[in-house]
Amino acid sequence: MREKAGSIWFMAATVILVSVAAFSFAGAVMCSAELSEAAQEGYYREKEKELVNTTRACLKQLGFENSGVTLTRVVDGDGSRAYTVTIHHRAIDRMEEAERDVLARRLAALAFEDEASTFCYEFLITGSYGSLN
Question: Which of 10, 41, 97, 133 gives the lowest tally of CB atoms within 10 Å of its CB?
Answer without folding.
Answer: 133
